[in-house]
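Entry for the shared binder. Reason: the reviewer on the internal report wants the predicted structure included alongside the sequence.
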Amino acid sequence: MAGTVVNLKARTGQSEGLGARREIDLASLDFTNCPVRDVLQQIGGKWSTLLLEALAKQPYRFGELRRMIPDISQRMLTQSLRDLQRDGYIEREVFPTKPPSVEYRMTELGRSLYTVLSQLLNWAEANHDEVRAARLRFDADAV
């Protein structure tokens, strides 16, 4: 399929404008260094979206986040928060209390991501039943 040109609806806030169409030559893409895959891999994790959703509303302390998502382990919460912090979506502030307390909040980069992510979350909620029905139909036909 070398040289295949595909029309993709690009959703960028750049000069093309939101919803602009652009053609992409699939043969010229470097799939090993794809920015879309790189970003989505990090925010598509099991806990990242829930944490971004919570922190979009207000800053939270570690313990508050842990109580909000009761089935996440302390280790996984710590790792997920570090990953989001590493990518610049959230920031961590340590308060000089005894014992020290830590608060997490969304950064400007995180807010810009959440603007787009919230549209996907709304779409998923609105279409979840239809997606599940399609899966059931597909699985029934595969048998």
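Summary line for the report: The beta strands are 5-11, 18-25, 60-61, 90-95, 101-106.
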